[in-house]
Design brief:
With 270 residues, the chain is an alpha/beta fold. It is 40% helix and 10% strand.
Amino acid sequence: MSPRIHFLSGLPRSGSTLLAALLRQNPCFHAGMSGPMAGMFATMLGEMSGRNEFSMFIDDAQRQRVLRGLFENYYADTSQEVVFDTNRAWCTRLPAIRQLLPNSRVIACVRHVGWIVDSIERLVRKNAFSPSAIFSYTPGGTVYTRANGLAGGEGMVGYAYDALKEAFYGEDADRLMLVQYETLVSDPSRVMGAIYGFLGEPAFDHDFEHVSYDAEAFDQRAGTPGLHMVRSRVKAVERATILPPDLFRRFENDAFWRDPQAKVRGVRVI
């Protein structure tokens, strides 16, 4: 029997790896860091479009069967009953997800954008002798040029932010739930309870004192050791930002999900 499919998405450096590490404590769940499925989905969709000279032989029903088969075959060897596939691009695919997998849900992790940029800048400075894949392995630049690159429409943060807003305000927002990083690290029990309720899955007793996730080999290859590091204990860590004050203030109004008037679609925010 094919597993039930759900999605983890949202903003980078906002707790998706931590959330995946917690979810996979449940023996019925399969979860991990960002994987290839979203890219494969987009490539196949493109190859079945009008740019293919034989696309006249492919109708929407066939496209849907092929794309649904992508999930079924990729996860065919997964023994768990529920799969969480992670990628920031899933927030742009809610209309397709609704039609292909009508019972699936998208959980998007969010965080104050200034602290996301701060977190990435900390990684850059920590790995001063290892240019990062985040910036195409290009050394040099300043904290300002790096922040501008991240926040641009095609940047690591900017793309994910725009995708999140598309999902948040879209007509399929009823299948979206936002998990704030600040809540996840300060009250993980509440977050996990809300997620289980959102998914309609039976509750599970998670261990927030002994969390593990190993992606060291991937992070080393990406030139960014620590990119997916998860602390063994879930807790909030207070610190001062390392960003210049004017740069940090640039993002101070970007947490739109905190504005009650912005919740026009009634998206759940925990």
